[in-house]
Amino acid sequence: MNALSLMIILVGVALNAGGQLLLKAGANSLKNIELSWAQPLLSAVRIVFEPHIFAGLVCYVISVGVWLAALSRVPVSVAYPLLSIGYVVNAFAAYYLFGESLSGIKLVGIAVIIVGVVLVARS
Predict the structure, then answer these.
(1) How far is the C-alpha of 30 from the C-alpha of 47, rounded, in Å?
(2) Domain range holding 41?
(3) How does 47-62 read in b/e, with b if 16+ C-beta sit within 10 Å?
(4) Which residues contact 19 (CB under 8 A, 6 or more apart)?
(5) Is the pLDDT of residue 94 over 80?
(6) What's the whole-number mean pLDDT along residues 100-110?
(7) What's the whole-number mean pLDDT along residues 48-54?
(8) Among 42, 81, 101, 111, which is most exposed with the fewest C-beta within 10 angstroms?
(9) Half-sphere exposure of 77 (CA within 13 A, CB side)
(10) Mean pLDDT within 63-85
């Protein structure tokens, strides 16, 4: 895998991770999301147009285009496992941004993911 392909994959991972974090921030700002069966369209519009959620969805849409560019350059058996880097990014970001716990067992899992990503990237 060349440097450009790796960069495209990492941009896709960053967009995907950023999208997930933005969705979490949006969900936090809405508190307990409840869909109104009486006015489902109004509920959906309220959720989608919450600024963090909207930005998260935009990140996801862009990441699909970036992912297609990655798949045109790298075998899916190599590219897809590299998406696991997003788990690592999100675990640490959630710890810092949302105060989520980062226990010892989670850190061991993160280390296993990192080792796996390195092995796949070198294959």
Answers:
(1) 8
(2) 3-122
(3) beebebbebbbebbeb
(4) 56, 57, 58, 59, 60, 63
(5) yes
(6) 95
(7) 92
(8) 101
(9) 2
(10) 93
